[in-house]
Amino acid sequence: MIENEREARKEQVLHIARQMMTAARTAPKGKGLDIIEIALITDEDIRRLSDEMYRLSDETGLKFILRDAANVLHAEAVLFIGTVQQSHGLNCGHCGFADCAEKPQAVPCAINAVDVGIAIGSACATAADFRVDTRVMFSAGLAAQRLRILGDCGIVMAIPVSVSSKNPFFDRKTD
Q1: What is the DSSP letter of 137?
Q2: Centroid of chain to Cα 68
Q3: What homologous superfamily does CATH list for 5-162?
Q4: Could you count the other beta carbons within 10 Å of the beta carbon of residue 53?
């Protein structure tokens, strides 16, 4: 049997992206509270994400989102990591408010943001172990929030995943 890498690439990328999801899930969480949500999209859902990013750029005037919207189309998969907005009740003040009771509901608990960051680090480390190309994008994460890919998650980041001769997520031109 002859197996050509080009024909097996998509299957391999999906396998690695699922490994990245596992790494994000098993990453340490503040107070041991697991409020992380993780999802993966491919194919037409990547196109839908890109379309939403174009709309987001039009609404906000942020031109770099146009670059990112074109860029995610080079991904075979896009992974999303987010967190449900939930105060951890530590009254640590890290969010900028004296205690959790004073913090407005719309302001994320700093521990939530740290949890997402640690999960992203674990997922990207896994991607590096497998030598696939990735880039963390908050622009695609913001579009995913608008599409409710992770439901009501308040902080969402995206990690496009690609296997190609050159990483399409770096050395990108900006307008």
Answers
A1: B
A2: 13
A3: NADH Oxidase (3.40.109.10)
A4: 29
**What confidence tens digit (pLDDT) does each residue in 116-138 have?**
999 999 999 999 999 999 999 99
What's the pLDDT score for residue 107? 87
Provide the total of helices (H) and of strands (E) in the chain, helices listed first.
5, 4
Token pair of 78 as six digits? 């896009």
Residue 114: name the closest of 28, 5, 21 by CA. Answer: 28
The SS3 assignment for 118 reads helix
Q: Enumerate the domain spans of the chain.
A: 5-162
Whole-model pTM?
Answer: 0.92
User: CB–CB of 79/20 below 8 Å?
Assistant: yes
The residues, ordered by sequence, that sit 6+ positions from 174 with a Cβ below 8 Å of its Cβ are 63, 64, 67
**CB–CB of 122/147 below 8 Å?**
no
C-beta separation of 130 from 94 below 8 A: no
Cβ-count burial of 67 within 10 angstroms (0-12 exposed, 13-18 middle, 19+ buried)? middle
Q: Which helix (H) or strand (E) holds 146?
A: helix 138-147
Which position has the token pair 């999303």? 80
Listed residue (71, 16, 35, 24) closest to 151, CA to CA: 35
